[in-house]
Amino acid sequence: MGARGQPFPAGSPRVAVILPCYNEEAAIAGVVADFRAALPEAAVYVFDNASTDATAAAARDAGAIVRAEPMKGKGNAVRRAFADVDADIYVMADGDGTYEAAAAPAMIAAMRRESLDMVVGVRVPDDEVQGAYRPGHVLGNRVFSFVFRRLFRLELSDLLSGYRVLSRRFVKSFPSVSKGFEIELEMSAHAALLRIPVKEVSTRYGARPDGSKSKLNTWLDGARILRRMLTFLRLHRPLLIFGGASLGAAIASFVLAVPVLIEYLQTGLVPRFPTLMVATGVMLTAVMLFIVGVILDAQARYFSEMKRLQYLQIPGPAPAFVETDEALETARS
């Protein structure tokens, strides 16, 4: 195969497809079949998230390895999968048939070729299918993605995509606590915190098959995602939160104190002494908030460094090819 076609000596990586499911009897068999066709050497796992229909039986009949997660919520199912499944590369998708299984080999190839730890499948709605990607969800995803890029400095255009290829060291160093659909946000925040290599790949996004219903509540799950984003911000960038609060308190103190100061300069008296006391108290609060922010920021940096050391202890994704100096010289000649 030549210098650039030399296989990696360690052999092909072990690939596991993770499909968290809740009441997807109508879709799961087709999803399992599609991923088995796209990735013949991969093990396909379906984590049945307390379904009340025949999801588990349909997945098993289609050839998947079925595991049960009794605690409801996509985050709970994904956390169990990451803990129980041992692989080198993990392909995570939904069991509703909306993601393009045929795109998985290219996403895996991109991960190995560029030594990435996460490849995100950016959803491109299928023009032939109307209503595959609801306008409300599109708008919400764009807003959350924009805010995330500004706050966490990681360029992701589809923050909430559930189609991801993950390396072993990402999965085994990922301290997930999410219960529901905010799991994708948590993955993205983990990537931003550790500053790991990430890439986006466009993938087709289709409609659910007949009989399959979305479990996503636009407003409720959107509120949970927003709350989780603010929690991550408080935990990982506390100086921004407490510094902002400190600045707000300082401005309020200044607004209260200026009229009192002007009156004192004009008359030599301080008739509004309670206002001055309040302004002083608010300014002291601003100073304390800033100090708390500095302390928590130092602590957050320490924990971030500890997480990165844990991440670095796990071997990275094996590259598709190895280019030694000898092979390069052979290629040049």
UniProtKB/TrEMBL annotation:
Keywords: Membrane, Transferase, Transmembrane, Transmembrane helix
SUPFAM superfamilies according to UniProt: Nucleotide-diphospho-sugar transferases
A GO molecular function held by the record: transferase activity
Pfam families named in the record: Glycos_transf_2
Protein's UniProt keywords contain Transferase: yes
Transmembrane segments: 239-262, 274-298
InterPro entries for this protein: Glyco_trans_2-like, Glycosyltransferase_2, Nucleotide-diphossugar_trans
Domain Glycosyltransferase 2-like: 17-171
PANTHER family xrefs: RFBJ PROTEIN, UNDECAPRENYL-PHOSPHATE 4-DEOXY-4-FORMAMIDO-L-ARABINOSE TRANSFERASE-RELATED
Protein name, entry field: Glycosyltransferase involved in cell wall bisynthesis
Species: Amphiplicatus metriothermophilus
